Fold this protein.
Amino acid sequence: MVKSRDTEALREFLKDHTVAGYEVMVPIFGPAVIERQISTGGGFVFYRVIADKPVPFVRLADEQGVSAEPMTLQQWRERFVGTSTKSLPPMAVDLREQLEAGERVSLRDVFFRELMDTGCLDIDQNVTCYSFDSRNVRVRALRKGMAVEVDDDAGVGWAGKVVGLEGKTVLLEQFAPVTFMRTPKSIDFSKIRKGFYSSEAWALGFGIMDGFEEHGIKPPAGVLDEDEREYALREPMPIAEIERFCAQYYPDVKHCVYQAMTMFVIPINSQKADFLPLPEGRDPEEYVVDLET
C-alpha cells in the first residue's frame, strides 16, 4: 500500500508501463490475454489478444459481419475506391492476382488469409488471436501494479495504478489527484482513510458551502464551478480546518469532511465498476500531476 505520494515514481512507472500479459475479457473470445498493443496513425489503440479458448473462424467472421459473397475486381473497386480508403484494402498478393485474372474473391477470403498469415489460425481453422479496439477490452484479473481506468455509471476515466486489493475493493492511486466531488460513483466511502487524500483542501463541495452560509461563515477566496458542485479555492487551506468545522456543526454527517478531500488514492467497489487497461505511451510529464501534500 502506498504510504506517501511520490509523483516521480509514478512518472517512472508510466514510462515502463506495458499492457502485455493483462488478463482481459474481449468480445467473441471472452477470456483472453493481451499479447501487445497496436497503435494506429489516427490515434486509435488496439490490443492483440490470445484467446483462452480459440473460436471457429466462421463464428468470428459472422460476428464481425465479414461477407462471404465472392466479388469481381470491378465490384471490389465499386465498393472501396472513392471511399475514405481511396483504394482496395490490403490483401495477399495471390488473392490480388486472382482478382486481376478475372476470378472472384470475397472479403471473408481476405480475412481468412490475414488471420493465417499473422499466425492466428490453428490447423482446425480456429482463431487463436485477434486485435480488438481498446475501448472494448476489460481487465478480468486485477493485480497490484496494473495501470487502469475506471468505467462505471459516471463514465470512463480516473487513470491510476492499482496499489492494493482489499476483498472487493480496489485501491487506485491516481496519476492526477481528483477532488472528492469528481470521484467515480463506484467509490467505496467506507474504505477512505488517512493517506488517501491531501492534508490540504483545494476545493469545497456544495454541501460545505451551504453549511458556511447557514452558519454565517465567510468562505475563503475562490470561485464556484459552472455546474455549482464545488468551490475551487484560490489558495489551499488545511483540511484540519474543515474537520473542525464539521465536528462543530455537523458531527453526524461523515461526508461533510469528504467534500473537502483531494484524493490521491480512490477505493473502488469492483462490483460497481469495470476496469480498462490504460494504453501504453502516455506522456508521464503530462499525465502525472503533482500537488503539495
User: Anything to note?
Assistant: The mean pLDDT is 93. The first helix runs from residue 7 to 16. Residues 20-136 form one domain.
